[in-house]
Amino acid sequence: MVDIAHAADAFVHFAAAGTAEAMPNNGEIMPRLRFKAFATPDEVRPLPNGRADVVSLDEATVARSEFDPGWRWSIDLAPIMGTKSCQVHHLGHAVSGILHVVMDDGDALDIPPGSIYEIPPGHDAWVVGGEPWVTVEWTSARIVGIGPEGPGERVLSTVLFTDIVDSTARLQRMGDLPWQELLRLHNARLRNDLNSFRGREVKTTGDGFLAVFDGATKAVRCAGVMTRSAHDLGLAIRVGIHSGEVEFVGDDVRGVAVHAAARVMSLAGPGEVFVTSTTSDLLDGSGVELEEAGTYELKGLSGRRLVFRLVTPHKG
Predict the structure, then answer these.
(1) How far is 314 from 306, CA to CA, in rounded Å?
(2) What gap in Å lies between CA 168 and CA 221, rounded to an integer?
(3) pTM of the entire structure?
(4) CATH number of the domain at 154-310, out of 3.20.110.20, 3.30.70.1230, 3.30.565.10, 3.40.50.2000?
(5) SS3 annotation, 17-49
(6) Can you tell me the distance from the alpha carbon of 208 to that of 203, in angstroms, rounded to the nearest whole number?
(7) 20-34, 97-111, 114-128: least confidently modelled range
């Protein structure tokens, strides 16, 4: 177990460095040589029949979680998360014990110790046998064991939509298999960005994401990093952001704010991040630089609205 802990600590440093280097040198976080230990975590989250030790290095977060024999997601965490199945995307290292995972479509798998695993959203899971399941995760580390607000409650959130520009034409040029591989890389990179800024992935839209954030600054900074991640893959994405009240319903999110973010995204060009004036007002003092992008009527919404463009993302 000592070697595993050391390996996990080394990964935390590696992840932090990778995240920071992806950011521009404009006064934001830069990597530095250091480490943290799970023995002295930044946060300890007690979970039903388990616990999570969480460490963070700037934008990177890694959690070491332990689930006791008899733990089951649908029994222990479903009441907290408010969904019928787990809607979180997991990527991690199984240290010890065995976890049995059953997807919503019936596909099932045992995750053995010493393995690297990925679990898509939409699953139940439980510990097999009499040994605790111990895991180190990074994709979902910021939100492990933290549930959204209950169904029917309207909460202030910042909504983010992304979309790959000219994806249909790109698919026709590349063919199905190369496009699917590129899309897989795109999804993996953007999910890492969402995790770094504590964004909650709600769903994919075929060639984009719908996500929500508990802060406008995190959402806009994440959007800028996402455009750079896509650019590194030879893709151009557009991003739309709006802040307002939303309602969490099962594994989905509803409200006028969701529609507004989608409408604003449709106005953006390749590599652009557009935000509404509502979100812009929440960025005062954040250091995020915006410029006016015009006044538009957003389909289905009343009145003309001033829209802003993030200055720093990649174009083209």
Answers:
(1) 22
(2) 28
(3) 0.58
(4) 3.30.70.1230
(5) HHHHHCCCCCCCCCCCCCCCCCCCCCEEEEECC
(6) 9
(7) 20-34
